[in-house]
Amino acid sequence: MKVESAYKEKTKKKKGGAGPLAGQGAIDYEKIVSSPEYKEMLRRKKRFIVPMTIFFLAFYFMLPIMTSYSTVLNTPVFGDITWAWVFATAQFIVTWVLCVMYVKKSNSFDKDSDEIIKMIERDGGSA
Amino acid sequence: MNATVVILFLAIVIATLFITYYAAKRTQTTGDFYTAGGGLTGWQNGLAIAGDYLSAASFLGIAGAIALFGFDGFFYSIGFLIAYLVVMFLVAEPLRNLGKYTLADMINARFDAKKVRGMAAFSTITIVIFYMIAQLVGAGALIQLLFGIKYWIAVLIVGVMMTVYVLFGGMTATSWVQIVKAVLLMLGTIIIAVLVFAKFDFNLVKMFAEVKTATVHGADYLKPGLKYKVPLDTLSLMLALVLGTAGLPHILMRFFTVKDAKTARSSVVIATWIVGIFYVLTVFLGFGAAAFVGYDAITKANAAGNMAAPLLAGVLGGDILMSFVSAVAFATILAVVAGLVLTGASAFAHDIYGQIIKKGKASDREQMLAARYASLSVSVFSILLALFAQSMNVAFLVSLAFCIAASANLPVILYTIYWKKFNTTGAITGMAAGLFSALVLVVISPNVFAPEPGQAIFVGTALFPLTNPAIISVPLGFLGGYLGTILSKEKADYRKYAEVSVRANTGFRE
Question: Inter-axis angle of helices B151-199 and B114-147, to 10 degrees?
Answer without folding.
Answer: 70
